[in-house]
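Subject: design request, 157 residues
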C-alpha cells in the first residue's frame, strides 16, 4: 500500500469491515469479488439489475464487494447473477469455483464444499445468490459506504 496506514483493527475486523476498497482487496484469499452496482434514488442496491436486499445512503454507481464464502449456488429464479464455471481449485475441505459472469466482463470465485462443487461440471451454467448481510458497498472514491439489510431481507430475532 505504498507505506500508507489504511486501517487499524484486528484481522477479523479488517477482513469483515474494511474501510475502503484497497483494504478489502489486500486481505483475504481468494481475493474479494468486486462487481458493479447501482444505488437508486430510493437507496436500493442492485447488481446486474437485480436487487440484493441492501439499502444504502449513497446514490449512483458503486462497487460491490462480496467474499467467496458469501456467494451460494441457487435456482435461476433466486439468482442475482449467472455465469459459467471456467475452472476449479480443489483444496480438500474447500473448492474454489471460478466463474465467468454472463455479462462477459467479470469473474467471481465461489468457495464451496466438495459436496456442493461435485454437482458442477466445467462449462455448466451456474446461478449465484449473495448473502445480503455480507455485501460491502464502496462509493466512487473507493470508500466504504453505509449499507443496511433491506426490510424484506432482515433476519428474524
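Subject: RE: design request

Done. Sequence follows.
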Amino acid at each position: 500500500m505504498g507505506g500508507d496506514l489504511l486501517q487499524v483493527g484486528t484481522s477479523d475486523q479488517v477482513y469483515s469491515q474494511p474501510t475502503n476498497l484497497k483494504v478489502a482487496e489486500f486481505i483475504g484469499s481468494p481475493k474479494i469479488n468486486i462487481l458493479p452496482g447501482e444505488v437508486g434514488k430510493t437507496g436500493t442496491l442492485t447488481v446486474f439489475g437485480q436487487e440484493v436486499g441492501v439499502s444504502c445512503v449513497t446514490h449512483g454507481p458503486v462497487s460491490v464487494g462480496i467474499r467467496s464464502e458469501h456467494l451460494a449456488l441457487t435456482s435461476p429464479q433466486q439468482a442475482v447473477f449467472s455465469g459459467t464455471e471456467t475452472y476449479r481449485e480443489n483444496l480438500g475441505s474447500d473448492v474454489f469455483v471460478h466463474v465467468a459472469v454472463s455479462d462477459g466482463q467479470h469473474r467471481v470465485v465461489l468457495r464451496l464444499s466438495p459436496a456442493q462443487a461435485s454437482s458442477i461440471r466445467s462449462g455448466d451454467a451456474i446461478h449465484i445468490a449473495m448473502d445480503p448481510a455480507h455485501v460491502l458497498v464502496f462509493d466512487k472514491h473507493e470508500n466504504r459506504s453505509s449499507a443496511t439489510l433491506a426490510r424484506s431481507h432482515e433476519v428474524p430475532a
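Residues 11-16 form the longest helix (6 residues).
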